[in-house]
Each structure stands twice: as C-alpha cells, then as structure tokens.
Input
Amino acid sequence: MKNKNFYITTPIYYVNGDPHLGHVYTTTAADVVARFKRLAGYNVHFLTGTDEHGQKVAQSAEKAGIDPQEFCDQVAQKFRDVLSPFQISNDDFIRTTEDRHKKTCMALWKKLEDAGDIYLDKYAGWYAVRDEAYYGEDELEDGPDADTKIATATGAECKWVEEESYFFRLSDYTDKLLKFYDDNPDFIGPKSSANEIKAFVAQGLTDLSISRTTFDWGVPVPGNDKHVMYVWIDALTNYISALGWENGESNLMDQFWPADVHVVGKEITRFHAIYWPAFLMSANLPLPKKVYANGWWVVEGEKMSKSLGNVITPETLLENYGSDGSRYALMAEMPFGNDGNFVHESAVNRINGDLANGLGNLAQRSLSMIAKNCESVVPHKGEFSSDDKTLLEKAYALPEVTETHVNAMQIHKYLEAVWSVVGDANAYIDAQAPWKLKKENPDRMQTVLYVLAEVIRCVSIMAQPILPTGADKILDQLALDKSSRTFAHLNENHALQSGMTLPVPQGVFPRLELNTEQAA
Ligand code: MSP
Output
C-alpha cells in the first residue's frame, strides 16, 4: 500500500534576530507543500521552530542585557507570532531549549558514542560565530587583521579557536555518504546544491568538532558538563526530537520518520546533507528522503541588512500585499531553488496580473454573469463542444501534473500550471462571448457559464495551498461544501450540480495601488 504519511520541516531559525522576509519565504514554501500534500490525501506533519543555543544567541542575549532563556522566550515568540498572519499550517513548533529536545540530543549523543564515533581531543582552527561553522584554510580569505579571516562562501568573520573538544568521526563517512548520494540521486536538490555537496565530500571529510567549552549556553554533553554540544548537532536533532524520539514523549517516529523533505536555505545545505545523514547513519536511523535548498533573496538588488535599513519585515509584507498576496508573490517571483531579487513594483504587478486580473477577474466576471443571467443558480449544461472539453480536461489534469512539480519542489511550476488554466479560461470567456450568446443562443450561454463555473471550482481547489483565504472565498461563492474541496474532488464525478443556488458574488482579490514609495 502506498505510504500516505508525509513529514516536512523548515530550518529552525536562530533567535539572535527578528523574523524577516527570508524566514517567511522558506516557511511559506514548506507550508504550500504541506497544504498541497494534505489536499492530495496525505497525513502530513509539518514542523517549524527556533534554534536557541550557541555562541551567537548567547552573545545577542548578553548584548541585550537579558538572561539568555528570557531573551530566547521573547524572540521565539516573535517567530511564533509570524505564523498565523501568513496562514502557516504547522503541526508543531519546536524550541531547542525545550526539555523534550534536550533529552533527545543527549540520547543521540549516547548512540554516537556507543557506535564508537565520538572521541575527546583538542580543536585548533577557524570558527565563524555568525555562521556557527568551522572553516578549513582553503575556505578562507585574509581578513582585516592577522587575527581575523573571512569565510569566502558567506563573508563571515572567523577567529582562531583552540580548546578541548569532542569530535565526531566524520572522516569515516566519506565513502558511505558518496555511496548514499549515488544510490539516491534525488536526495539533494536543486542540482547545483547536489553537485556542490558531492564535490565537497569527494575531497574527503575531516572529523567534526561537536562540543565547545568556552561558553555554556547549550545542551550539556552527557557525562562531561564542562562541554556543551556544538549548536549544529543540537539543532539538527530537532527533526527527531519533535517526533518524540527517545524522550518519553508521544512517539511519532514510526509514522513520520524518515522525513520526506527538509526545506533549507542553500547556505545550510552542508549541515543537512553531510553532517545530519552521517549522525543518523551512526545512530542507525533511516535517512531523510530529501534535502531541498531554496535560493537567496536580495531586495531591490541589495543584500538585506540592518545597516542598509532594507530588511523587509513580515509586517511590511502584510501591509503591502496582504497574506495571500505575500505568499503568492514570494512563490511566483522566483523559481524555487534559484536566487532572486525582490522588487516591490514587480510583486505588485504580479499580484495584480495573476490574482486581481487573473483568477479574481475570472471568478468575478463568470459569477456575476451567472447571477445576472441564470437566476443565481449553477447553469444548465448542454452538450460540451470540443473547446469546452479541452478546457475541462486541462483543469481535471491539474492534480496529477502539479503533484509531480511539488514532489520535485518546483513550487513555481505548480503555480504556472494552475495559472495556465486560469489564462485559458479567461481567453475562453472572450472567445465564447457569453454576453452575445444571451440573445443568440441562451442554451449555449448556459453551457459556457457552466464550464466556467466548473473550471473555477477546479482552479480554486488547486489554489488553496497558495491562497488559503482567497481560494476558500471563491469556493464559498460556488456553494461548495467544505468537505468537497480536496484533489480527489477534482474530476467530473464531483462536478457542480446544475440548479444549485449560489450566493451573491463578491470580488476576492483587490487591485493593489503601486505606491512610488519603496516597500521596505
Ligand atoms: N538555525 C539555523 C538553521 C538550523 S536548522 C537545523 C539557521 N537559522 S537562520 O535563522 O539563520 O535561518 C536561516 C534560514 O532562513 C535560511 O536557511 C533560509 O531558509 C532562510 N533565509 C534567511 N534569509 C534568507 C534570504 N534572504 N532569502 C531566502 N531565504 C533566507 O541557519
């Protein structure tokens, strides 16, 4: 029998700064996929949360002059508060300072130790607090002074660190990982990330320092609390601590592990596609099916940064585009996996073009004609012409076509497929000109309007994952029962019934004014 469980995760976000467009982006992408899979009949578990340990967070708390736990409580709440305004349908929210998480971290550590993969030694090397990452000499450039180097990939400042540290025998996993990548060609996406990771691993891995002694804001190492765990071994474990692995909480592991997809930003692919599978292999746990990296947004051509004052906050997104509009613009404005430039004017044009003029206009035009000319009931359907059939067949094919795209994390292609039917339907209205048929051939007018209503039903069902509010409103206007809105209803067996009374149609997607003022 087909496995109908689906587990999807976002990165857990550092609480050293406030949420912004980048976090909303990744979380929305995961949400679209989670909603899509639910409508496709899967039992979905969707996890997001916050990453609260490590030197970076400890330093931010110190700077703010607050106790680290209190600092984390405050910022984690801000990340939580962003979810509902953007209609994020997560099933759980994990915080790494929770007990359930710490217990799982300790249990995982013990498994790695039992497997003989942990040993105590001394670390001497370059460390970037901003990235919470160790870098090799070949990954660094000279910095502003002799004590500082710059990580070429990220631009983060690195300092020399020398301390006693536990190590994980990552070097033993080079061949095992390369074999795993070969056997599972879709494990890392997009292709560019996969190539980068494979090339990195193929050079041969060195053992990984997995504990720190120079600060204490972390999960203590079992049996030696002079050490706290390296924040990445702690953070990655969230994906199983949230399922209750070895922590005495309700155990969802059987149902949802291995994860179907970890959605991550491209800069953290290495941690998810190298360290995480190696830890899991060592603990004898199954590996996730996919790690998919989204690209990076810049804003109006510039990297978002506090100093440039161009950080787009969640509030700005909501004010400018609303919740559905933000979700749509973020997902449609750049192919998932690519980098992109977020431009206010382009987002407004996209929303006006595809939502106000596209789906909104299609629904508004068709439903008002039905209200006016068909006594506000679903029109009578006569014999279908070949144009009618072509349009309906394309609409009915959407669940299958789009699921392939969503499985490959090609979210923009799923949108393109749905909006291609919206475009065809708008062209069909113009070509069929039902307003002319009213006098010339009222029966045919009824059929044309029926086809339109049925296509609107289909595209709105398909649009629910991306536009949860707007799509629902249109489906309400078709008087469609809430329980009849899944992809299983997207066929002629569940087609609209002629004669059913419809409510008064209302516009769903207002046109946005293009303010000359910038979005940020
Ligand atoms: N805490 C780690 C992740 C641990 S996962 C086990 C972390 N946190 S973070 O707060 O820095 O969040 C980074 C993630 O936010 C990125 O991987 C990406 O998903 C998202 N983004 C942050 N800024 C972004 C852009 N400018 N553009 C697109 N996504 C970005 O790393």
About this structure: The pocket of 5'-O-[(L-methionyl)-sulphamoyl]adenosine is lined by residues 11-14, 22-23, 25-26, 51, 235-236, 238, 264-265, 267-268, 294, 296-297, 304 (CB under 6 Å).
